[in-house]
Amino acid sequence: MQVFFRDFFSDPVLFLSFGFLSVVVLLCLFYVGFFIKKVMDAEVPEGQ
After folding, report:
1. pLDDT in tens, 7-48
2. How far apart are alpha carbons 45 and 34 in whole angstroms?
3. Membrane-spanning residues where (predicted)?
4. What pTM was computed for the model?
């Protein structure tokens, strides 16, 4: 396991790939939470 971490931090392509992937996943989670919050807080127009 120690060899994996040494290779992970010494290889910039692998490090940046997982870095950008984590940023994309965090943005997706943020927008899912944002969308759910907006749907829950939305006002239903009366008369329909």
Report:
1. 777 888 888 999 999 999 999 999 999 999 999 999 888 875
2. 21
3. 12-36
4. 0.70
Burial of 6-30, coded b for 16+ CB within 10 Å and e otherwise, reads eeeeeeeeeeeeeeeeeeeeeeeee
47: left (phi over 0), alpha (psi -120 to 50) or beta: left
CB-CB contact of 20 with 27 (8 Å): no
Beta strands in 5-44 (DSSP E): none
For tokens 């927008």, the residue is: 31
